[in-house]
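Re-running the complex after MR caught last week's input typo. The corrected sequence lines follow. Everything else is unchanged.
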Amino acid sequence: MKTWRVSVHITPRRGILDPQGKAVEGALHSLGFENVREVHIGRHIIIENEAVNADEATIAVKAMCERLLANPVTEDFEIESAAER
Amino acid sequence: MKFGIVTFPGSNCDYDAYRAAVDTLGEDASYIWHKDHDLQGSDVIILPGGFSYGDYLRPGAIARFSPVMSEVVEHARKGGIVIGICNGFQIACEAGLLPGALLRNASLQFVSAPVTLKVENTDTPFTSGYETGALIRIPIAHGDGRYTADESQLDELENSDRVVFRYVNERGEITPDSNPNGSARAIAGIINAEGNVIGLMPHPERALDDLLGSSDGLAFFESILARVAA
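Corrected-run output:
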């Protein structure tokens, strides 16, 4: 078993109003970043997980996302490739 | 009848719920610690308001895995009454007892204020004491109360009369200003398909005495008493 560092990005599902993203978008516009079209704010979770290989570590984190880390009604998640610690 | 009020770390409306059962209704009630696996013979389970687990991750996301929740879900599956108020509504959604989710208020502000609700369905164990279409004043106090579900789920809730309470203005109209958190279709409270689990963001347990601004929550608790006693 090795320890693998897996990053997860959780973001509001497209189409669901993201008031934090909207507020930051407005602030960026007022700072002069006129080219900003959309901002979405989510969570970045880092999990260090013991597993025999990177695939197993990723599979486990996917299960964690489905059961707890992301809400299937309102959020999408994306798992970055696992890196050995 | 016995009420069981679940206390999670961070619950802060458990005492109000207890008081509603014991002082207002004159019924028996117990606090149930979230780590217990015993509902103590309760007929009605209340998941109270508050900030269980500090709202970490998402409101209700961690509380829904508290040990006692397996018994609460089982109680609901057997037709037992479960009431989720505010954080309890969020927990009930996370636990899959009710569809949808509660997201950050559209305003990004925590809103603590009395609101007007329209009672949309009086054929439930929680609302039989109200007139259909009644306008009632009940306080809200939440930062994450924007009810959200996909369109087909929202249609299903409406078509099966499962929207129990809506946010309206004092004339009973749905307007952007009367919706305090941006909830889809101004939904303030829903029941499950079987009709024994309700979730609502407003706090009927804080509206039991005119001295405190409203006694419109009385009929909510009296309805339950009438139904369970019947």
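None of the earlier attempt is carried over here. The two ends of chain A are 12 Å apart (CA to CA). Chain A has a mean pLDDT of 95.
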